[in-house]
Structures are given as structure tokens and as C-alpha cells.
């Protein structure tokens, strides 16, 4: 369904997110004829640019990162404009209001506005209040929606304050809190895999599942984002949002329907059932790490403290490994081992479901266990491991696999996360956006960890290109288990 005519206003128009993710996503939607016939993209930031200058920047960045068709690119750029405003000065938003009014005056149908806040979080309450002061929250002349990027708050208290401020000017139905992991096809497929296959769902509980691993590993370090990252760390950057949302998809109860309310009720319920982390959990079931300089494949990689924008004495974690429990009927006692880190050996995100052994080991204790590997990225697919009788005499077993890969699907136009989420927001579908109760449940859960990296015994070093501190291996080894190392 093509969304209605809309103006897409991007605050933070010169930022990294805009050029790396938003503009390419909008370009692909345009090329695939998924944007309305009458749409515009208006970049907004402080720097003075003419429409033409900004268009040129957009064009150059698309040429650099995407495969483009010259004709389509030229057409697309005709929809792009620019408005410089001082986002801290409420009066200045009058210029934006005027731009949008001019567009509305040229149009036969009511125009809708999607305001994308791709700015530093310090502007998340300022921009909506200033938009509202100019009536740009008023839906009597077309819908007005806000997309807000993570981090949504800095901790539980600031997240609650921000939510209160947003609700002074915008209704919940106008607020779209983006978590781009929910836009990933493979994350959404967790729901179809679980709730459309009668074969798996009966086994999806504490009676049959031994433990679950959730891994989001990155090879890259903090790159140019040291300034932001040093105030965030892996817990705020990845665990509080992306990883806990994935956990919710793996662990939630079946919703009565796939819509914004039914889905998000179940997500909030499971996140609220996470067992709170006690002081003992922080010492026993949590591992924080920071990458240190090392040579990898003949290249010297700097340690985290040597990265630009990072303090030389920084205690910010670039790795977090955690054993979590969900206190409900389905999952009681099943550990969820979660880890994420920068400068690990490779980029991979996956969920591994380890099934319990059969009750009596007739083929010996070494017979392989059943594992289901849900590969979120980059090698998207689903792998099922099971035991096979090794051909020949006797009953020796070996592990074999059934493997489905997304790239085997012919004819499928897989949208990137940002493409999908931009379309959903324009279509008014909030199913794949985080609701404030879930965001707060995640903050409540990670809150005890947020300052734990300051504890003198809490932060371990790990060399670039390794799977994190050895203490993270011990977290599982203590339970006679081991991480899967997906290389
Ligand atoms: C972002 C984080 O939200 O997600 C980054 O701020 C991280 O630090 C990125 O690299 C990972 O996203 P993806 O889609 O590449 O797994």
C-alpha cells in the first residue's frame, strides 16, 4: 500500500544517520515506486544551504554509497529541499511552518508531515515543543507524526521525563520510537517462525528448551562515534534496545493479532517479567569488557581508549555479556545468555535455541544436542542441527544440519530496516515501533548495570578480534555450557 502524500522533514539533515541510512532508504523506496506520487523530503539543520546545494550533497552521498540510475537519481533529487533553522530557537520554526504551508497551498489534497528526529538526543524534547508552538502537531489538516531515534532517554528517569514532555504536545498515536532491529526482516520472521509453525511452538518453553543465546557481534570499533559512544557504552547502545527487543520476539506469548496494541501488549508483558538484576547477579552473571589494542591480520588496531573522542581513562564498556532469566510460566529457570560487543572477530547477529537432551542417552552422552540457529544477519537464514547415525557399523552419531538461506528465495524484494519502518510510519502502523511501556521496562531492567562499569572490579579488557573477555566464557562454563562461536 502506497502511503498518502507526505512531506518528510528530517531534522539532523547533515548527520551521519541521514546520509547513511535515511536518504538511501528513501531513494530505494522511490525507485521501487513505494513512495506517494506527491512527496517531498525537507532537510533541516542549522547550516545555511540553498535547496540546490543540499540536493547536490544528497546526490553525491547516494552516488558514493548506492547503485544508482542517473535518471531516477535526478528525479528523486527534485523532491529534495532544505530549510536552515536554529533548532534551539522556537521562533525560527516559523520558517519551517511557512515552507510546509507553501507546499500545502500548491496541493489539492491535505498534506501530511513526518518529522524525523535524526538529531542529538538533547533536542528530542525541544523540537516537538517548537513544532507544536507553530501548530505543526495539529492533525486537522493531515496527519503529523514524529519518528524518534534511540537513545530514548539516558536512564529510566530521563526516559519517563521525555515521554511526559512528548505527550504534552503529541498523542501516542503520533509518536514512533524507532528501533531499527524491529525493522529487520529476520527479526520479524521470529514471529512467523514461532506462531505459524505448529511444529516448533509446542516445544518453545522450559520443558524442552535448555537455554537460549542471543549474540550481536560487530567487527568494527566505535569509528567516528567516540564522542557519543563514550557517554553511552554497549549497555545503552545495544542491550537496552536492540537486544532486549529481540529477546522479546523470542520469548513473548502469542499475540491475539498482529497489530500495534496486541503485539506491543505481549512485548511489554515479557519485558516486565525479566528477573531484576540483584547485586549478586551483577557480580556473577554480568561481564563488561573494553577492547584493547592488538594486531589483527597484520594490522595494528587501536584500543578503545585511543579512539578519537574517547577519554584516555574511559571505563565505558564496549562489550556486555549477561545471563538473564524471565520469571513467567513459560520460561522459569531457562537462562538467556546475551552478548554484544565491538571489535569482536566478525559481524554476526543470531539467536540460538538449545533444546534439552533426550531423557535417556542410549547412544552415549556425546550424541549431539538439537540446536536451532536463527541467523538475523548478515548471512540471513535458519539452521537446524540434529543427530544422525554415522553410516557404518554400530550406532555412532554425528551432527548434521538443515539450512535455509534467505538468498535462496527468488523474487523477494527484501526491504532494509529503515525502508520498512519509514513506510510503516507513513502508513500509521506502529506495530514495529517501541511503545513507552516496553522502553521503560528495558530501562528498569538495565538500570542496575548502568553505573556498574565504575566498580573497580567490573571491567575486563579484551584484545581486538577476540570474542570478548575470558570471563564471558566462564559465565557459561560454570553452567557446563559454551557460547556458539559463529565464524
Ligand atoms: C546502532 C548502534 O543502533 O546499531 C551502533 O548505535 C551499532 O553502535 C548498530 O553499530 C548496529 O546495527 P546493525 O543493523 O548494523 O546491526
Keywords:
487 residues, alpha/beta, 9-stranded mixed beta sheet, 6-stranded parallel beta sheet, 17 strands, binds 6-O-phosphono-beta-D-glucopyranose
Protein architecture, described:
This protein is α/β, with parallel strands linked by helices and 487 residues long. The chain is built from 14 helices and 17 strands. It has helices at residues 16-31, 51-65, 70-77, 93-105, 126-133, 156-169, 185-195, 226-229, 233-251, 260-272, 279-284, 417-427, 436-450, 470-477, and strands at residues 6-11, 39-45, 80-84, 112-117, 144-148, 175-177, 209-217, 286-292, 294-296, 299-301, 319-324, 336-341, 348-355, 371-377, 381-389, 397-405, 459-463. Strands 16-15-14-13-7-12-11-8-17 form a nine-stranded mixed β-sheet, sandwiched between helices. Strands 3-2-1-4-5-6 form a six-stranded parallel β-sheet, with helices on both faces. Helix 9 (233-251) packs across helix 13 (436-450). The radius of gyration is 24 Å and the shape is globular. The two termini are 39 Å apart. The model has no long low-confidence stretch (mean pLDDT 95). Bound molecules: 6-O-phosphono-beta-D-glucopyranose.
Amino acid at each position: 500500500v502506497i502511503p498518502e502524500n507526505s512531506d518528510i522533514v528530517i531534522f539532523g539533515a547533515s548527520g551521519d544517520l541521514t546520509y547513511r541510512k535515511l536518504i538511501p532508504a528513501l531513494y530505494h523506496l522511490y525507485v521501487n515506486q513505494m513512495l506517494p506520487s506527491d512527496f517531498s523530503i525537507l532537510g533541516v539543520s542549522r547550516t545555511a544551504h540553498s535547496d540546490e546545494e543540499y540536493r547536490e550533497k544528497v546526490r553525491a552521498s547516494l552516488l558514493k554509497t548506492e547503485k544508482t540510475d542517473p535518471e531516477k537519481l535526478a528525479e528523486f533529487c527534485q523532491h529534495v529541499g532544505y530549510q536552515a533553522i536554529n533548532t534551539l530557537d522556537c521562533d525560527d520554526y516559523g520558517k519551517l511552518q511557512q515552507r510546509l504551508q507553501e507546499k500545502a497551498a500548491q496541493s489539492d489534497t491535505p498534506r501530511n508531515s513526518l518529522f524525523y528526529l535524526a538529531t542529538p538526543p538533547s533536542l528530542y524534547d525541544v523540537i516537538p515543543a517548537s513544532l507544536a508552538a507553530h501548530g505543526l502537531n495539529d492533525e486537522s489538516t493531515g496527519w503529523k507524526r514524529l519518528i524518534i531515534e534511540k537513545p530514548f532517554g539516558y536512564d529510566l528517569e530521563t526516559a519517563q521525563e521525555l515521554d511526559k514532555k512528548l505527550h504534552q504536545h503529541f498523542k501516542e498515536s503520533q509518536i514512533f520510537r524507532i528501533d531499527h532491529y524491529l525493522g529487520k526482516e529476520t527479526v520479524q520472521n521470529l514471529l512467523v517462525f514461532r506462531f505459524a509453525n505448529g511444529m516448533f511452538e509446542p516445544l518453545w518453553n522450559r520443558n524442552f528448551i535448555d537455554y537460549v543465546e542471543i549474540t550481536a557481534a560487530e567487527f568494527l570499533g566505535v569509528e567516528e562515534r567516540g564522542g557519543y559512544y563514550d557517554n553511552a557504552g554497549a549497555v545503552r547502545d545495544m542491550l537496552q534496545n536492540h537486544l532486549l527487543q529481540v529477546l522479546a520476539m523470542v520469548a513473548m506469548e502469542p499475540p491475539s493479532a498482529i497489530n500495534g496494541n496486541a503485539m506491543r501488549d505481549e512485548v511489554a508483558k515479557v519485558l516486565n517479567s525479566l528477573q531484576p538484576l540483584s547485586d549478586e547477579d551483577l557480580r556473577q552473571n554480568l561481564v563488561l569488557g573494553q577492547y584493547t589494542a592488538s594486531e589483527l591480520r597484520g594490522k595494528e588496531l587501536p584500543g578503545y581508549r585511543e579512539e578519537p573522542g574517547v577519554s584516555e581513562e574511559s571505563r565505558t564498556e564496549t562489550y556486555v555479556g549477561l545471563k538473564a532469566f524471565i520469571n513467567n510460566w513459560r520460561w522459569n529457570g531457562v537462562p538467556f545468555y546475551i552478548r554484544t560487543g565491538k571489535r569482536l572477530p566478525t559481524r554476526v547477529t543470531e539467536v540460538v535455541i538449545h533444546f534439552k537432551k533426550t531423557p535417556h542417552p542410549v547412544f552415549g552422552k556425546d550424541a549431539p544436542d538439537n540446536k536451532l540457529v536463527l541467523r538475523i544477519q548478515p548471512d540471513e537464514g535458519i539452521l537446524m542441527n540434529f543427530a544422525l547415525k554415522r553410516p557404518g557399523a554400530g550406532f555412532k552419531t554425528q551432527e548434521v544440519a538443515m539450512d535455509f538461506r534467505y538468498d535462496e528465495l527468488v523474487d523477494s524484494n527484501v526491504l532494509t530496516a529503515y525502508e520498512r519502518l519509514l513506510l510503516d510510519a507513513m502508513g500509521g502502523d506502529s506495530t514495529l515501533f517501541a511503545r513507552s511501556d516496553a522502553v521503560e521496562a528495558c530501562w528498569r531492567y538495565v538500570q542496575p548495570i548502568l553505573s556498574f562499569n565504575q566498580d573497580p572490579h567490573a571491567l575486563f579488557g579484551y584484545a581486538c578480534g577476540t570474542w570478548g573477555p575470558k570471563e564471558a566464557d566462564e559465565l557459561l562454563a560454570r553452567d557446563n555450557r559454551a557460547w556458539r562461536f559463529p565464524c
